[in-house]
Write a structure and sequence with these properties.
It catalyses: alpha,alpha-trehalose 6-phosphate + H2O = alpha,alpha-trehalose + phosphate. Its cofactor is a divalent metal cation. One of its GO terms (biological process) is trehalose biosynthetic process. Removes the phosphate from trehalose 6-phosphate to produce free trehalose. Trehalose accumulation in plant may improve abiotic stress tolerance. The protein has about 475 residues and is an alpha/beta fold. Among the domains are: about 220 residues, HAD superfamily/HAD-like (Rossmann fold), CATH 3.40.50.1000; about 100 residues, Alpha-Beta Plaits. It is about 35% helix and about 15% strand. A hairpin with a 4-residue loop joins strand 3 and strand 4. Helix 7 runs parallel beside helix 15 and helix 10 packs antiparallel against helix 11. The termini are far apart. The relative contact order is 0.18. About 25% of the residues have low confidence.
Length: about 475
């Protein structure tokens, strides 16, 4: 309830109390707003605080230069270096910034990371659909389909070893309302199983490693959970183990290398998870997920916003029902009930998350597709995980290796960027809506991802013959 009230400012209160002079003429009553203000006043940032939880910024605009097949050959890249000190230096924030400003900036980021898809349920839906298709086709000039460009990809891949890296949600499985039911189809599982027989394949997901393994259920893959902060990869006797890396065994008893650079954050993550569950429990549709080394707050089923004037009629009705009470009490009771119901929206989610992680300067916030993710402040992401897996597989610093990364979310941009800036391979963005990316190619949805995987298998079979 606290974070619900914090999302309502004094101006909104006045607008509600002076809705209509026909009802009580509230302006003529000498009622002080001090009590209401003390309840709903926005919580200001502690001006003496020297730290705030950092927020991940959007990826920098990509360069206009495009990597073409001929530019990838030859290439060389430095050997990956894994520093034992992965902690980022958190810049000090200037004091005096109101918390609601930060919450508003998060709200803007939530909207930009969760683009609306144009609805076609309209009398002129044919025109709307046509405009959408034109925009998408124009976007595909810059990010051509990996299916229509498949021959270009395979021509460059001749004589090379392909290493395949896949995101899970939105890539191998459709985005669903309940993240616990993001199951991949039987056909998709078969396609992934076949492609893993021909190419080294890894899944790098924001989910916990155990959870994504439970969804996929295939043993011939390598898994990286929590955005690469929990990696299970193959053991190479000739390679040196970085810090936080131990030898272990998988479910089949096979020796594997387990790398968890954020292991010291586990108690903190559990504490934040419990706090977020408690602070969002009254928000209808909000779901908090513990992904071991990060916490995800899903707001896909939360209303983006609710018109504050929907409750005006209820105010009038309540006024009649409570005619025996004072006009102030009637308005105040209705205000509490109305704000509790109508302000359970995205801004409320952002405020609740902010109120929790503001006390944890070693955690940061990033935005995904209708999800807020709280992660440790360490120099590690899906791009670093990609580099680590290539080294673990013995595929780094080789001219005859072509990594391909397929993903749909903002967090996948780190991996796309590694491939682009190092001229290492191809990033493929899965998206049905135009958006800027560091990827080279695109696929519309998981169905097209499956077709691409099948095409890779067929190409490999025929190239061997």
């Amino acid at each position: 309830m606290d974070c619900l009230l914090k999302s309502i400012d004094k101006k909104t209160l006045k607008r509600w109390f002076f809705i209509d002079k026909r009802v009580g003429c509230f302006a003529e009553e000498s009622v002080s707003f001090d009590f209401i203000s003390s309840v709903t006043k926005l919580d200001q940032m502690d001006l003496k605080s020297n730290h705030t939880a950092p927020v991940l910024a959007d990826p920098a605009p990509i360069s206009k230069s495009r990597l073409v097949a001929s530019s990838l050959l030859p290439y060389s890249s430095p050997a990956p270096v894994f520093s034992p000190n992965l902690l980022l230096t958190v810049p000090r924030k200037k004091t005096g910034i109101l918390d609601d400003v930060r919450a508003s900036s998060w709200l803007d980021a939530m909207k930009s990371s969760s683009p609306r898809h144009t609805s076609t349920r309209d009398y002129n839906h044919e025109i709307v659909s046509a405009d959408t298709d034109v925009a998408y086709r124009t976007w595909m000039v810059k990010y051509p389909s990996a299916l229509s460009s498949f021959e270009q990809i395979t021509n460059f891949a001749k004589g090379k070893r392909i290493a395949l890296f896949l995101d899970y949600d939105g890539t191998l499985s459709p985005i669903v309302d309940n993240p616990d039911f993001a199951f991949m189809s039987i056909d998709m599982r078969a396609a992934v199983a076949k492609v893993a027989k021909y190419f080294p394949t890894a899944i790098i997901s924001g989910r916990s490693r155990d959870k994504v393994y439970g969804f996929v259920g295939l043993t011939d893959l390598y898994y990286a959970g929590s955005h690469g902060m929990d990696i299970m990869g193959p053991v190479r006797e000739s390679s040196d183990y970085p810090p936080n890396c131990i030898r272990s065994t998988d479910k089949q008893g096979k020796g594997v290398k387990l790398f968890q650079p954020a292991s010291e954050f586990l108690p903190m993550i559990d504490e934040v998870f419990n706090s977020l569950v408690n602070s969002t429990k009254e928000i209808k549709g909000a779901k908090v997920e513990n992904n071991k080394f990060c916490v995800s707050v899903h707001y896909r089923n939360v209303d983006e916003k609710v018109d504050t004037f929907l409750g005006i009629r209820n105010i009038y009705l309540l006024e009649v029902m409570l005619s025996g009470m004072s006009i102030f009490l009637a308005y105040f009771i209705n205000f509490c009930a109305h704000s509790y119901i109508c302000f359970q929206n995205w801004k409320t989610v952002a405020q609740c998350v902010h109120d929790v992680i503001r006390n944890y300067p070693r955690l940061r916030l990033s935005h995904g597709r209708k999800v807020l993710e709280v992660r440790p402040v360490i120099d590690w992401d899906k791009g670093k995980a990609l580099t680590f897996l290539l080294e673990s597989l013995g595929l780094s610093n080789h001219d005859d290796v072509l990594p391909i990364y397929v993903g749909d979310d903002r967090t996948d941009e780190d991996a796309f960027k590694v491939l682009r800036e190092g001229n290492l391979g191809y990033g493929i963005l899965v998206s049905s809506a135009p958006k800027e990316s560091n990827a080279f190619f695109s696929l519309r949805d998981p169905q097209e991802v499956m077709e691409f995987l099948k095409s890779l298998v067929n190409w490999k079979k025929t190239s061997v013959l």
